[in-house]
């Protein structure tokens, strides 16, 4: 065992792996594979073949070890949604892209424009596997057609950073917040050029088994070939939809995510400090319409994204895309966005209680720096104690089942 592989095993043993795909970039003797629980994890498939200084890069970059909040010079900071230069509601001007995207199609529109304008040579992202649509895989986008084909959320495991193009010169990376945090922290160790980093608000990575369970409940058995599958898109919020031969099935967002996919998110996601993509240059999210309590209403309508410029580089790109007529925008108050994202804000507000509860139960969580978790959590001591006790019980029960 090398120092890197010892560190990887420690993250796995603590159930702190997010499945980001950084490990195979540091050691070509590792490969990301689905485990028995349905999550992607690094597996040794050969002798160690490490890049220089691999263990040190892993220690500062692995989201299962640490994540640091970003505070770019000149930015404003929201205690629950992180640093930013500007925030808008936005949507793709191209109606086909707007329809295909999970909300307003903004990331897909930016992908197509970045390629067409020559600002990047490629985009490393994720999409459905054409050969096995139940599965999601890393992809490299080099054309508008590929950008449109990759539109829509993928609520299943995929290790975006395992894509060899993720750290190539002239690349943009669109990935989950944990993957983007790893990519930013690893800059300079895996490539000379800093990629443009794009992300989205993430509620967590469900098990691959949840997709199979959802399909089975809708009438497509696990042993049947699936010819097409979308988790969202073709409307907003869009329906889960799949086709197998002559059989077509679908479920609304609350049934697919709320009842089946969401409850299976991996443990690392439940103790995530950053579902809002603080390490990215550009972040998109659903700009939900809310009821009188401030909670999202999942009513089908034309998609609208929240769009955040987190760095000056991101701000310049967004302003150029607006000027080019690629996306349309209107002002958005960041406190309004926070109220429309109750899962994200509650998770950060009480995350310290979850971290303490996990540690007391014997599961050491990652280190998170600069997120102001103590100030947020201890402002509501009664709720803090409730969350801590609940986390302690759940982790003890989970460890007992494994034990």
Question: Secondary-structure blueprint of this entry?
Answer:
Elements lengths: L2 H11 L9 H4 L3 E5 L5 E5 L9 H8 L4 E3 L7 E3 L3 E3 L1 E7 L2 H6 L5 H11 L5 E7 L7 E6 L2 H6 L21 E4 L2 H10 L9 E5 L7 H11 L9 E3 L9 E5 L2 E5 L1 H9 L5 H4 L11 E5 L2 E2 L5 E2 L7 E5 L2 H12 L3 E5 L2 H6 L2 H8 L1 H10 L6 E3 L3 H6 L2 H22 L1
Parallel strand pairs: 3-19, 7-9, 9-10, 10-14
Antiparallel strand pairs: 1-2, 4-5, 6-17, 6-18, 7-8, 11-12, 12-13, 14-17, 15-16
How does this structure look, described?
The chain has 403 residues and is of the alpha+beta class. 36% of the residues lie in helices and 21% in strands. The protein has an eight-stranded mixed β-sheet with strand order 8-7-9-10-14-17-6-18, sandwiched between helices. Strand 9 (171-174), helix 7 (177-186) and strand 10 form a beta-alpha-beta unit. Helix 1 (3-13) runs parallel beside helix 3 and helix 14 (351-360) crosses helix 16 (381-402). The longest helix is centred in the last third of the chain and has 22 residues, at 381-402. The model has no long low-confidence stretch (mean pLDDT 94).
